[in-house]
Amino acid sequence: MRDNKKLFDKISKRLDLLAKLPACKEDKKDIYEELSKKGIDRRDFVKWAGMMTATLALPASFAPLTAKAAEVANRLPVIWLHMAECTGCSESLLRTEDPSIDSIIFDVINLEYHETIMAAAGYQAEQNLENAIKKHQGNYILMVEGGIPTIEYYLTIGAHGKTGAQACRDAAENAAAIFAIGTCSSFGGVQAAYPNPTAAEPLSKIITKPVINVPGCPPSEKNIVGNVLYFIMFGALPALDAFNRPKWAYGNRIHDLCERRGHFDAGEFVQHFGDENAQKGFCLYKVGCKGPYTFNNCSKLRFNSHTSWPIQAGHGCIGCSEPNFWDTMSPFEEPLGNKLYHTAFNGFGADKTADTAGMVILSATAIGIAAHALISSVAKNK
To answer: What global pTM score does this model have?
Structure first.
């Protein structure tokens, strides 16, 4: 408790200092005014702050600090670069029909450079990026969306033909924090899938500074905004897992928190899409769900204004927040355990990015899960 009090006071002082800084944006948007325009009152905002505090794995008493961090978010400059991607991560956050508090907060944040929503183009856009890097040197957050081709002619930018990789290096040099947004930027994504003709790489492979990975196809807006709020409050990066993902967001497997987990344990499985068991909401493991091998908080946060997520909608998790998931998790409608049986631990299926020991452990886990599914299913039938 005493340590929490010290931390609370430390964060509070940091937020007080940030509050005294002028807003970065010329229009100086106020979070409460923006929320009011969307029909969201202060009580809803307080509830959101409490929920976000819990999501960040902070004590409930820190909720006022989370709210205050959102209030001063317009003091924080953000530079967002687009590489080889579909812009889905940006679209899911900014183009929602029914804006959530998260998306409104991100609209209030000072987006100094974001190609999807900026009016400038051509030379003016290039100049805006250079000016933003100089103006906020050492104080801005860099967010990069998309895999980065390392064969230069696949991604060149502007009149001078700068490569995407070089643009990332230039922007990363003076960034206070760097986030890879989405699986493409975090791990290469579909761009880096076999045969990877552009030699696409994740952001962490083409720069030398620490990168926080926020994978997902797309990631939840809370996982994006939550990291920004964490950095505002602490002035530091969150605790990370082995793949540099924030533990507060990617610390649990989909399988552990899945609403269908009870059916898995009881041996109740969907045998094929559209069957009677599918209508009963049984476990999707036998039709390819990769939830046992995927770390994310989708079941808690959900998508589409937090109303649903793939497993609830009837399709198994495809493992989109894991490294190399296009190669290691496919085919998406078949159990991963079957694939591992057939390949006999030859390096395909479990996780090519892990070392040998890690791959064998995950392979054994997959076979154990497959065996459990088989045994429990037989017992259920008897």
So the answer is: 0.84
